[in-house]
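Q: You know discrete backbone vocabularies at least as well as I do. I have my own habits and do not want them to colour yours. No explanation is needed for now; the record alone will do.
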Amino acid sequence: MPPPTERTTIDVKAERAVLAAVRLPESRYDPADPFGELAALTAQAGAVVVGELEQRLERPVAGTYIGSGKLRDLAELAERLDASVIIFDHDLSPKQIANIEKVTNRKVLDRSELILDIFATRATTHAAKIQVEIAQLEYTFPRLRAMWGHLERIAGGAAAGGVGTRGPGEQQLEIDRRLVQKRKSILQAELATIQARKRREVRARKNDHFTVGLVGYTNAGKSTLFNALTSGGAYADDRLFATLMTRTREWDLGGGLRVMLSDTVGFVRDLPHHLIASFRATLEEATHADLLLIVLDLADPAAEMHLETVLKTLDDVFEDVARAESASPTVVLAAVGETPPPSPAASCCSTRPTASPTTPSCSSGSRTTPTRS
């Protein structure tokens, strides 16, 4: 199989994939099923997982992230299993991707690229499509030079930026960079308009009703719970990122009490930061809710890690909001399932640092945690 030269698409549909990972001391993953989530993500992208390979290192190798010996093993595994794509369970630099592709003669994707591909197929609303495209452009921009593999041939081995290196490929690279920046600016302006409108709608709703937002790890059962508590209508399926849109319905608590309940997009471990930033409009319901219910599937062995991921993502989401607003919602852990998580996630109450502390109150199966403001 000839080595790939241009990276013009991230479509992995119907391809045979080998999964790879380098486990560092600070890596977060489920030891009981180290490739379970990546395999699920790969399946959602339409590829078939045919093999797995991992390596434990104290620090990544600069040029390839994975060690040279394991890289040769990876190339042999992909060849033996007739895999056409290799997917890594972490982010890689453009140079690392190029070096791995050179050794393996296979297309290489990292975790962010895979998640972006899934989000692109799930986006149905205009706002979601804009958010995904912005995230894709931010991911692509620093990788444009790697996508123009023929530049080295045009440069003829001359020093970078030296005389004779400004060929048509280099000119096209600069054109591509300007086009990406221009397109991103247009989309960001359009998204800012959508965010402002969404913010007004959410605040108007909050003035009239007590608002509650469902948040949690993807595929934790948020949409199923939402449909059970309200008139429903949210798409629910046993797969990651089943929906990227926020839906709000009235929740009748009985005794004449009604609140507005919102279902939001699910979180995932190591969600690309630019994707979190792009989806702030989708999470507007959560950032301005009076109460956040974290839905956690206790039957999942990785429940504790899922909770940590949700709390960290919420911190990222609320970072900008906290600068402009003094209020912050109360966060309650709404646990579902039969098997409790193994450690701190199962405790009744705990607090996290907050500029406006509130006294946590506990009930059976829940935990109250104020967010930072």
User: Anything to note?
Assistant: The two ends are 54 Å apart (CA to CA).
